[in-house]
Write a structure and sequence with these properties.
Largest sheet: 3 strands, antiparallel
CATH architecture of the domain at 42-126: Sandwich
Structural class: alpha+beta
Order of helices and strands: HEEEEEE
Strand order of the largest sheet: 1-2-5
Helix content: 10-25%
Shape: flat
CATH topology of the domain at 42-126: Immunoglobulin-like
């Protein structure tokens, strides 16, 4: 009886021991890096700084404009697009031309956004 039990279990034992090795052999892993956050087109390689500006008096707790500075000269004549998000939705968007030599751009929001609703700002630079 013991001999029959061993004969029934040896294929299961072989499969249990060999299956993970066979599965791992089919995976291919490369050494590439993973990144996120910024992407820069070749014609407009720039990593700008973004600062939200609050209003005065009535709008003292609202974001009324955003400064984008440190724009490379190679982006001059292009466009900067700004999207201010509250949670996952776009609260406000603004676009403006980049000066010929790059530098800084101030984008005024069409409607002030309460600071508590300003979760993050996305900036896109489009070169000439």
């Amino acid at each position: 009886m013991v001999g029959m039990a061993v004969r029934r279990w040896w294929p299961v034992l072989i499969m249990a021991l060999c299956f993970p090795v066979a599965s791992a052999a089919t995976l291919s892993i490369t050494g590439a890096t993973i990144g996120s956050g910024t992407g820069m087109p070749a014609a407009c390689a720039s990593a700008p700084t973004v600062a939200q500006n609050l209003g005065t008096l009535v709008n003292a707790t609202n974001v009324v404009s955003v400064d984008v500075s440190g724009i490379a000269a190679s982006c001059g004549g292009g466009t900067v697009r700004l999207t201010l998000y509250n949670n996952t939705e776009a609260a406000q968007e603004a676009t403006q031309a980049i000066p010929g030599g790059g530098g800084s751009v101030n984008l005024t929001l069409p409607t002030p956004v309460p600071l508590k609703d300003s979760h993050f700002v996305a900036v896109t630079l489009q070169g000439p």
